[in-house]
Amino acid sequence: MGSIGSNLQEVRRRIESTCAASGRDANSVTLLAVSKTFEAAAVREAFAAGARAFGENYVQEALAKVEALADLRAHLRWHLIGPLQSNKTRPVAEAFDWVHTVDRLKIAERLAAQRPAGLPPLDICLQVNVDGEASKSGVAPAELPALAEAVAALPRHRLRLRGLMSIPEPTSDAQAQRRQHRRLRELFEALRAGGLALDTLSMGMSADLEAAIAEGSTLVRVGSAIFGTRS
Ligand SMILES: *Cc1c(COP(=O)(O)O)cnc(C)c1O
């Protein structure tokens, strides 16, 4: 692994070449730098190298980083990409810009009610369990349309439904990666065809961002390829 700056450059190169190969504009893919388990100093280094959106999994750890980086707050976006319990929604509604892991209406209702009036709406993705494994979080594909309609009906000055997110089973088989991502894209397109104004498909990580972009991802969540291996 190189420095955070050179790693970022390499990830951007991967995004650009995949976009070029798929006939997509490189600006149509947002890079989310996943900084979970890394210190605020690492986030600061990535920020200096141009990263502007950061993903965190654990609420307490994230809140400490948001505070440590308060001087940068106006210039970056914090995304929660880890599981969210209903008793933790208030600090999340107050501190984050995005939540990718909403998988039931109760969580969305609490976030909407708790979003401070002075802030822009909280941007939301619904997490979908594309593999259908009972042990995994995320809404089942069959229940997605009803959940999406209900979340989209919440007050839009508090909460904006932007799209879908998934964490597929890890596999090194590129064709299997594409199939998993295609599944989410088809669900996304069906919701759009049904009239929901969604613009965000949050899929792809360090190991499968090429497959995700080829299948239409608009936001890749990249941790280890930028910050190194997590201990
Ligand atoms: C940790 C994490 C990532 C980043 O994974 P890498 O393989 O390190 O790129 C992306 N998305 C979610 C939901 C994660 O928890």
Q: What would you say this structure looks like, in words?
A:
The chain has 231 residues and is α/β, with parallel strands linked by helices. It has a single domain, classed as Alanine racemase (TIM Barrel, Alpha-Beta Barrel), CATH 3.20.20. The protein contains 9 helices and 8 strands. An 8-stranded parallel beta sheet has the order 7-6-5-4-3-2-1-8. Helix 6 (144-152) links the parallel strand 5 and strand 6. Helix 4 crosses helix 5 (105-114). The two termini are 15 Å apart. 40% of the residues are buried. The model has no long low-confidence stretch (mean pLDDT 97). Bound molecules: pyridoxal-5'-phosphate (PLP). The site of pyridoxal-5'-phosphate has 14 residues, from strand 8 and helix 9. The site of pyridoxal-5'-phosphate (PLP) has 14 residues, from strand 8 and helix 9.
Label this structure with key terms:
231 residues, alpha/beta, TIM Barrel, 8-stranded parallel sheet, 9 helices, 40% helix, 16% strand, globular, binds pyridoxal-5'-phosphate
